[in-house]
């Protein structure tokens, strides 16, 4: 996800419901143009992970302004049983006398209401009515009942019923669309059906309804071909298709270096998401204003495409590990730039990212793995994105390119379609590199801040001082010395203490020096 200016709202971290494991969602959603009320029927197949007589699903209830969802019926499919249920606040409690560990049930839930959030209903920049799912982090339960946590992944099917002038995109394979009159009004309406057999977290389960033009883009593989399509508003057809065509290059790079593309198709969709881009699985939504015909979408496209592997397929097990999603997508964008344009272009991006980390640290000093913050929107900060990116970059420098790429592939192959924690990633990288990386990850993931370095050269002594008052860091640093005759010589130094003194004997007539010339260290220079 690439985010724009985000209105921070108080969303408290909630623990996943440990009593159930949702296996499949099948949602029927009906929308109309007369009002913002949606009508839903959800078939939810779940397995009990422990014996229980009552469990709950997340579903936002009716609020004082009348918005929210009202449940009209809950029943068990294929059985003449109507369980007792209670919808209180944002929880749907269901009594289940036979909830035995290891057994499964399919519950059918009928509901309707005006979404407070999650499904954004409004007008696009051209004044046309649209409906776009926008679930991150846990806003899906504003418009359908679910276990709204990234650790509970499930397959998903959508049946969408809408006025006939709309087109629809959603996760998974397109099954069918047909047109028929509404039995009640006689007006024409369309039925769209999509289904994904690949388990997804609720944060990336979406539908999108608008008047669209769409175009097939090149698929950069013959071995595992899949539909690759751009969806834009008809008014932006020319500029949108041009902007989105550059998606082919990062997609090809990721397939070749991480593994096969993980979903049934990939749609790039112009939308009204609150974010610059939202990485919905196989169905990426981009802010409508990012489509401008100026060819400025490459970084955004690369970032969201990288999420298909990291964040969507290999998903963080809980919110404090969000860097496994956002930090990865940020760094893999830089890796794409390096592959396509060269190391200097990647270094330009890394310097920008380092500057953002430094600036953020002046206001908020927290570690990448943040177990304290309770506002999930707050986690969309430079620690999760840019500092996470830098942790990966420094890891690559520490263990070498071969170990890094082998480790990345091993990590993805182990946790694709599942969930992983930071410790899971660390174990894979240690196993692959045959190196102990605990100190490295402790200081960059679990400690706050970064090295504040005062570096001076007096006569033949290089003085490197860490001036931060709390955490000491251990790291290599490169210095490029320029002699009076114009020669440039790069030397590496290992730093572990508050003050390090290095005698420089083999350089005569040093004119100047540059710190970290190859952009390999997250640090801040101080006077």
Primary descriptors:
527 residues; alpha+beta; Immunoglobulin-like; Neutral Protease, domain 2; 4 domains; seven-stranded mixed β-sheet; five-stranded mixed β-sheet; 9 helices; 34% strand
Give a quick rundown of the structure.
This protein has 527 residues and is of the alpha+beta class.
Structure characterization notes:
With 527 residues, this protein is an alpha+beta fold. The protein has 9 helices and 28 strands. It has helices at 237-244, 248-257, 298-306, 323-341, 343-361, 383-399, 401-415, 422-433, 438-446, and strands spanning 20-30, 38-48, 52-58, 68-76, 85-88, 91-99, 104-114, 119-123, 129-133, 154-163, 167-170, 173-181, 188-200, 207-210, 213-216, 228-232, 266-271, 277-278, 283-287, 315-316, 419-420, 452-458, 461-466, 475-483, 488-495, 499-503, 510-515, 524-525. Helix 5 (343-361) crosses helix 6 and helix 6 (383-399) packs antiparallel against helix 9. The longest helix has 19 residues, at 323-341. It starts with 19 loop residues before the first strand and ends with a strand.
